[in-house]
Amino acid sequence: MLTKTKIYLSSPHMGGSEQKFVDEAFRTNWISPLGPNVDGFEEDLRQYLGNNKYVAALSSGTAAIHLALQLLNVSKGDEVMCQSFTFSASANPIMYQGATPVFIDSESDTWNMSPELLEVAIKDRIEKYKKPKAIIAVHLYGMPYKANEINAIAEKYEIPVIEDSAEALGSTYFGKTCGTLSDIAILSFNGNKIITTSGGGALITNDLELKNKAVFLSTQARDKAPHYEHSTVGFNYRMSNVLAGIGRGQMEVLDDRVKARRENYNFYKTNLSNIDSISFLEEPEGFFSNRWITCIKTDSYETREAIRHALLEDDVESRPLWKPMHVQPVYKDCLNFTNGISEDLFDKGLCLPSGSDLSQDDLNRIINLITKTL
Ligand SMILES: *Cc1c(COP(=O)(O)O)cnc(C)c1O
């Protein structure tokens, strides 16, 4: 009997030399949250992002956002503008700080934070004497947000931007790498991301002092003394040297992974373009997406569900687009500035299997299932 294998949404995909770096950690007994792989991985990322950047390797992307908020002195009672159409980890660290998120809806060309709504929201909050402390903008599914517009507003009102580039390593915006488009950015190396350390993240800044402060806070904030001396509340957020070894191997294949994911997108688009009820998110001029996940937008909730169920019955994983934060039970009472775009995407959108290790047979199988359904 022919048994079909399960197709996942986005699987980890090792390149080959990860094991060598991990073995090296074992051989030299650097089984700790510091060591040559942590330094090496930070250096690899720095080479990739540009030498004027400083990188702190951390335990997760969530930890990186939390530290970024700390570095910007976001604290109890402060408000932070946050893209509503995102994964909850973009917003949760705002709550860890005792601050309050204000959710901003998306615009249709990139599905990311609407610059117009952002400015409306900032003006409203300033009028009410609640000037926001920071802006968290997200390059969702690898598509860059409109950084020129967002940064111009941020500069006008003097509010720092945290660039959530968790899904966008390998994407570029007018030739600049995502993760370098603002003063503080974060990456994630979770198992489902374009490259992975199984779990991990990084904070990127152009200020060496900020990097050093991030490392200090991430390693329990130990002051200089022979004993353990603390004058600040610290965190245990540094990346493990074993896992950083996986990251070093993955950096060798990052370009291949971007290429493979973009090929998935092109294949889906070519083979589904004759179906009127499906549309794709195109790259605006100057935008280059790593196509971490290929997303489709259908003409209705019913069409989306029909496709999702047909795939599920054949053991193919797909997923509705992110449910916007402003309609999540945990965040529904927070202030928000909306225009209906992210709710519409949540209703009608679907993430298709997008791993860099999908075979041509896998892709054909998915296309057949979708075409048969419609
Ligand atoms: C994955 C992700 C994060 C969090 O990263 P972790 O490493 O999983 O903690 C944050 N923001 C976005 C948009 C993500 O997709």
TrEMBL record:
Top class in the EC scheme: transferase
UniProt keyword annotation of Transferase present: yes
Keywords assigned by UniProt, alphabetized: Aminotransferase, Pyridoxal phosphate, Transferase
GO biological process: polysaccharide biosynthetic process
Source organism superkingdom: Bacteria
CDD domains to which the protein is assigned, alphabetical: AHBA_syn
Species annotation: Flavivirga eckloniae
InterPro entries xrefs: DegT/StrS_aminotransferase, PyrdxlP-dep_Trfase, PyrdxlP-dep_Trfase_major, PyrdxlP-dep_Trfase_small
Similarity-based family: Belongs to the DegT/DnrJ/EryC1 family.
Active site: K193 (proton acceptor)
Known pathway: Bacterial outer membrane biogenesis; LPS O-antigen biosynthesis
Catalytic reaction annotation: GDP-alpha-D-perosamine + 2-oxoglutarate = GDP-4-dehydro-alpha-D-rhamnose + L-glutamate
SUPFAM superfamilies in alphabetical order: PLP-dependent transferases
UniProt-recorded name of the protein: GDP-perosamine synthase
Gene Ontology MF terms in the entry: GDP-4-dehydro-6-deoxy-D-mannose-4-aminotransferase activity; pyridoxal phosphate binding
Sequence intervals crossing the membrane: none
One Pfam family hit: DegT_DnrJ_EryC1
EC number: 2.6.1.102
Listed cofactors: pyridoxal 5'-phosphate
Modified-residue entries (N6-(pyridoxal phosphate)lysine), positions: K193
